[in-house]
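Hi C.,

You asked whether I'd gotten around to modeling the 63-residue construct. I have! Everything is below, sequence then structure, no commentary in between.
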Amino acid sequence: MKQNTQKANTLIREKAKEYGLCLWQVADMLNISYDGFIRKLRHELSEEERDFIISVIENGGKQ
């Protein structure tokens, strides 16, 4: 059985990359540990939570 190889929360990962941020920097802006943030990204987030993280990235990152 073939599994889906696309990572969960791809939009968040791509947005962080677009703004020149590493995931540990995004976790720092959210005031959570890197490990906790990565665990959170393992499964698709709710639309509300995803939008919040993207807004943090857009307001804290450089483009």
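If it helps when you're writing up: The mean pLDDT is 90.

Thanks,
B.
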